[in-house]
């Protein structure tokens, strides 16, 4: 009988230990299939349980700064979507490795080092969020749901728990970053962390600010696509003036009345003019339906004569062929049975949009004195730089460093303007919707100067 109760106690302890590990588990990755030799940087992957009963298991990739991780800043990075895996940020934008730029030939894609990683000067946590994104998963159907607000709450809870298991980074300067749709949750997450600090939450997070690229911010930004198209010569001056007169500056379909025939006709002419334009970067080849960017590619695409290596979707497809390999999943410490088939951007995410305008968050964070870097690839038509400049101007802070060019190696790399609320706006010349993906050299120079408190 004594032995029986002893075994019961051991089982309870083991069960508790297993649950605790499940809530916040991680492990170092020293080798990755497709990369020759040991990784030249510290990579850790793992899960952190959030939500009620920790039924939402959030997966992350953590890369220590390659310079001085003890003192360098730490940043939480969230890829847009919503529902796009943070592997997009890691392998295509700001991480230390990327796929070799060759057409897929049926073998495991090759990974190579890149000198343009933001981890050269900062530690970065690439988080798969909301739940259902990448390798993050829900243990119950109820836990699979998410909204803008719930996503942000989960991210805040994630960071507090992550710091509990990584106390050596608690004192590092901390930033929240992301691009595209992450323009919505990043300011909310930053606000939640700030409020948590003020409320005395433990651990105290050394929040310093946030970073956003071509960020979604408010519903009216779609109207600036017309202004962008005119400025880039995609539509005629006559059509631009006619659009403005008939639509009165509001081009969203839901706001154009059925009786406004002139506006609707002009919008049809506008759509004809931009048909065949690659909106994330208007100078890139048009590669067909953008939904190909988020769906699992088929082997048929390998022999598609219309699929050129110059199409960016060919490069994003490499992630599918790589990450769905059993050896890769094992190396990344992916829990067996948690995600059957990895999808870069989940089109079936159980997500409800609840926040449409985050300008009040930017204003509040500005009033609290947090730093912010807002950058725009200037050839992006999805979130044009004009719309970003517009809401920044609406914050009504004085200019302390007026509009000017910034340079790299003696060449103009873009333009910048800084404001009294510690906000810096930057354009990346020639950049697209995710500027570091298109202009890595310029983007890493921009980030390095800003994060080091140096003028651009």
Automatic annotation (TrEMBL):
Leader sequence segment: 1-17
Localization in the cell: Secreted
GO molecular function: acyltransferase activity, transferring groups other than amino-acyl groups; serine-type carboxypeptidase activity; sinapoyltransferase activity
InterPro entries named among the record's database cross-references: AB_hydrolase_fold, Peptidase_S10
Any Gene Ontology CC annotation: extracellular region
Pfam families xrefs: Peptidase_S10 (PF00450)
Keyword vocabulary terms for this entry: Carboxypeptidase, Disulfide bond, Glycoprotein, Hydrolase, Protease, Secreted, Signal
Origin: domain of life: Eukaryota
UniProt xrefs under SUPFAM superfamilies: alpha/beta-Hydrolases
Single biological process term from Gene Ontology: secondary metabolic process
Family: Belongs to the peptidase S10 family.
Protein name: Peptidase S10, serine carboxypeptidase, alpha/Beta hydrolase
Organism name: Helianthus annuus
């Amino acid at each position: 009988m004594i032995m029986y109760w002893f075994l019961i106690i051991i089982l309870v302890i083991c069960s508790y230990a297993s649950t605790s590990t499940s809530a916040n588990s991680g492990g170092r990755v020293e080798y990755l299939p497709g990369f020759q030799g040991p990784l030249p940087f510290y990579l850790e992957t793992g899960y952190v349980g959030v939500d009620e009963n920790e039924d939402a298991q959030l997966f992350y990739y953590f890369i220590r700064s390659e310079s001085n991780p003890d003192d360098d800043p730490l940043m939480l990075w969230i890829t847009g979507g919503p529902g796009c895996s943070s592997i997009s940020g890691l392998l295509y934008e700001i991480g230390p490795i990327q796929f070799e730029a060759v057409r897929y030939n049926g073998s495991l894609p090759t990974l190579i080092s890149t000198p343009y990683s933001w981890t050269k000067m900062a530690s970065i946590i690439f988080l798969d969020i909301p739940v259902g994104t990448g390798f993050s998963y829900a243990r119950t159907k109820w836990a699979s749901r998410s909204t803008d607000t719930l996503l942000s709450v989960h991210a805040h809870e994630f960071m507090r728990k992550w710091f509990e298991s990584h106390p050596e980074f608690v004192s590092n300067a901390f930033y929240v970053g992301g691009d595209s749709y992450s323009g919505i949750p990043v300011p909310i997450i930053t606000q939640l962390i700030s409020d948590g600090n003020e409320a005395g939450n433990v651990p105290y997070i050394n929040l310093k600010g946030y970073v956003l690229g071509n960020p979604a911010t408010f519903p009216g930004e779609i109207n600036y696509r017309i202004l962008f198209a005119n400025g880039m010569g995609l539509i005629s001056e006559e059509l631009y003036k006619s659009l403005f007169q008939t639509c009165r500056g509001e081009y969203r379909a839901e706001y154009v009345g059925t009786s406004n025939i002139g506006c609707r006709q002009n919008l049809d002419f506008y759509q004809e003019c931009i048909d065949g334009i690659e909106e994330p970067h208007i100078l890139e080849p048009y590669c067909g339906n953008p939904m190909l960017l988020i769906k699992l590619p088929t082997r048929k695409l390998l022999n598609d004569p219309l699929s050129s290596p110059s199409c960016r979707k060919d490069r994003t497809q490499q992630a599918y062929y790589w990450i769905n390999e059993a050896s890769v999943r094992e190396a990344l410490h992916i829990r067996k049975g948690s995600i059957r088939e990895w999808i870069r951007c989940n089109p079936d995410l159980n997500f409800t949009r609840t926040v449409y305008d985050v300008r009040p968050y930017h204003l509040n964070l500005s009033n609290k004195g947090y730093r912010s870097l807002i950058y725009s690839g200037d050839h992006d038509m999805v979130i044009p730089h004009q719309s970003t400049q517009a809401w920044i101007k609406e914050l009504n802070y004085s200019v302390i460093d007026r509009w000017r060019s910034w340079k790299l190696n003696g060449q103009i790399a873009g333009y910048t303007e800084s404001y009294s609320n510690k906000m810096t706006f930057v354009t990346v010349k020639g950049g697209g919707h995710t500027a570091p993906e298109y202009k890595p050299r310029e983007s890493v120079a921009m980030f390095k100067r800003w994060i080091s408190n140096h003028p651009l």
